[in-house]
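A note on notation is needed here, since sequence and fold are reported together in a single record. The reader may check this reading against the record printed directly beneath this paragraph.
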Amino acid sequence: MVKRNFLRLGDFPLEDHRAMFQRAHQLKRRRKEQLLDKTLEGKTLVLLFEKPSTRTRLSFEAAICQLGGNASTLNAADSQLGRGETIDDTARVVSRYADAVMRDQRPFGRSTPGSTDGGPFHHRGAPRQH
C-alpha cells in the first residue's frame, strides 16, 4: 500500500471523496448489522494532542477499535511535549512506531509531516475543516 497523508480535504480528488463516503456508509451499515470489520487488524494509530480533547479522541479511539486496530493517545502532559519538545519532533519520532499518526488542529511548523519515513499522517485540520 502506498503511503498517503491526509493533511487537507482538498488534497484528494473528487473520486476519492466519493469512495471515502461510500466506504463510510458501508462500515456504518455493517456495524448496524453487528458485522465485525477487521480492516485495521494489527495496525496502530497514534493520536497526538497539544491540548485536551474528549470527543475527537474518543471518536478516533472508538473507530480504530471497531475496525480491529489499536489506538495510542499522547498528550502534552504525558509526553515530551510537556518538556519542551516540539509537536513536529514528537510526530516525526512517533511516526516510526505507528502505522499512522493523527494530530490535533495546530498546523505543523516548518517541517512537512509527510516527510518522515513513518506511517501516513492525518492532520485533523483547522476548526473550519474539523
Summary: Confidence is low (pLDDT under 50) at residues 107-116. The longest strand covers residues 44-49. The longest helix spans residues 14-32. The chain is about 30% helix and 15% strand.
